[in-house]
Predict the 3D structure of the following.
Amino acid sequence: MTALRVVVALDSLKGSLSAAEACVAVARGVGSVAPEAEVVQVPMADGGEGSLEAVLARGGIEAVTETVDAIGRPASAHWALDGGHAVIELAQAAGLPQVEDAPLQALAASTAGLGRVVLDALERGATEVTLLLGGSATSDGGAGVLTTLGVHLADAAGAPLGPGGGGLAAIAHLDATGIDPRALAARWRFVTDVDAPLTGPRGAAAVFGPQKGADAAAVATLDAALERFARVGAAALGVDAASIIEVPGAGAAGGVASVLRALTGGEIVAGGDWFAELVGLDAAVAGADLVISGEGRFDAQSAGGKVVSVVHAAAQRHGVPLVVIAGSVDADAARAMAVPAFSLAPGPAALAELQRDAAELLAATAASVTRLLARPR
């Protein structure tokens, strides 16, 4: 009988463990029950917070840029440079966790800090730029990035706009002739963990604005401002406004992949699929006896391109059983995906306790799963 082969492919557990740490914990649990097992760890991500760590686990140089956060305070942004390929996590320079200690500024929060990181990457020789879009505190349509790269945005009188999505309400002109030529020459990729359009009931402001501090009035202001921005940008670039507004993923991270994508000719890609290819998930799953995946919360959103759904698809392609371990489990989501799912909570517990003990709880749950379900094929 061949040794058991288990693939461990988890996302991060927000507030508790990185993807790599979660995989280590699960591997430890599997090994405690089946010490002879071959355990293959594949830390996963989908473009949201923690994605950079998963990228760096595969190689490349970790770079640091001194920049500002979404509300203009000094910040140090880490990113990856692999040859001429820069992988930049938006959350490092315009992330919501960075500004949770201050009053949220839904209308004024800016991606200018992200623009500084991109500019630094270009100055260090990057010819390919991948932006990991997730966890943003901003709804400025990427206007801060564009301005930092040399695009001129102005109101009807030719005056510069105010910061953030609120400033876009006055936009009347977009002039891209001054953009850094290296930005136009680079290949751009926008990795998203959502497929939201730029505006409308599923758009950047309506769905994600409230978590960034926008009340109903601010959501309406931002939605109208983002549409105005897209239409002014489309006219300046000579493209159809719908090609900016309606593209799936254009609403990710407050609309960063909207006008900037149209200007650079970049592509929007689903985060989970991009990471799966990056880390060789398919090759790892082939020939496995069991795959264990997981995330902080397994719910209805998990089926929409999140890590668990991507791992599920790979497991199905190779006929390998999948088990999900998560901080919390929605039974309806588990039934809809037709996979066994286990919560790492041993019983009623406070969130702080679960976060503190997440590694040990993951290991214990993985040991139980291995004991019950794993059999060499």
User: Anything to note?
Assistant: The first strand starts at residue 5 and ends at 10.
